[in-house]
Amino acid sequence: MRGLLKLLVAAAVVSAATGLWLTAPNRVAPERFANLTGDSIKGEHVFTASGCASCHHVPGAEDKLTLSGGMAFPSDFGTFYAPNISPDSEQGIGGWTLLELANAVTRGVSPEGQHYYPAFPYNAYNKMMDQDIADLHAYLQTLPASAVPSKPHDVGFPFNIRRSLGGWKFLFFNDQWVIDVPPELERGRYLAEAQAHCAECHTPRNILGGLDTGRWMAGAPNPSGKGSIPALTPNKLTWSAEDVAYYLESGFTPDYDSVGGHMAEVVENFSHLSAEDRTAVAAYIKALPAPGTK
Question: Residue 118 and residue 62: Cα distance in Å, rounded?
Answer without folding.
Answer: 27
